[in-house]
């Protein structure tokens, strides 16, 4: 089933997961990692996006962030598009770098914040990029070393994370480290990478127990949280739709989005609109069409005109789109 539109109100906590196309690498060397981290920090400051936890792996990345005034989608679009352009130029490659749609889960902060920070920062350890928690403490390519005060990123919301673990700096840092160590022995928690009722309740057995008691709780695949939180997020999303951009502004934003997508793949807009079946163009049209309809609210006809394809073609793209991460 296609995933629904993003839930992206300013001030929302998101667990964002980005993968390389066909599970290929998104970083090859330390210069790539430095570039990704630098741009993440620069954009965090520029957009007011709070970054609490992050980890750059070989073929994917995790970020725990709270969106700024322009929303999470704007932050991620600027980060991934800019990085992909520089990566392609540096490594003399063309085409997609990231899988067609990154995954973002809206998370209930009071229930999941500590676990999400720990889960994300333990990724390099669990993947074998470091071989001990002591080595993780100084590892540069996750936010853990910053929390431990063994590396400095002035843009990372370190103090906000530590206030969940204590009031005094040293005590909070030790409590955080103990929490991470305890979590490392529990194993990977799959519920922290997705939403929905089953994940929010911790498994199917809990859902069955809830139903046996005759209780009901709202769930949504895009949200990790209890029923009240899910309802609050969905109500806010409905309100945001009513207050969305004018039709003219939406069309202007859509044109900019097409330009960005083409630039990221070194494809001219003229070629995209030509109907050419050149390798990679069909895939690009599908991704852009789906984004324009679902995230910018363009009609099928408007999207078709921007991409130089038929309205029925856009309808088929949207109908059959399957987004994986």
Provide an overview of this structure:
With 325 residues, the protein is α+β, with helices and mostly antiparallel strands. It has two domains: 13-194, 2-Layer Sandwich (Alpha-Beta Plaits); 247-320, no CATH class. It has helices at 30-47, 72-90, 109-121, 123-126, 133-137, 144-147, 158-162, 169-186, 197-201, 204-212, 227-242, 247-264, 269-272, 281-294, 300-307, 311-320, and strands at 13-19, 50-56, 60-66, 103-107, 223-224. It has a five-stranded mixed beta sheet, with helices on both faces. The radius of gyration is 21 Å and the shape is elongated. Residues 195-220 and 236-244 have low confidence and may be disordered.
Distance between the termini: 14 Å
Low-confidence stretches: 195-220, 236-244
Rounded to the nearest angstrom, the radius of gyration is 21 Å
Classified by CATH, the class of the largest domain is Alpha Beta
Strand order of the largest sheet: 2-3-1-4-5
Biggest sheet details: 5 strands, mixed
Structure class: alpha+beta
Under CATH, the topology of the largest domain can be stated as Alpha-Beta Plaits
**Overall structural domain count:** 2
Outline: elongated
Mean pLDDT across all residues, rounded? Answer: 80
How is the quaternary structure best described? single chain
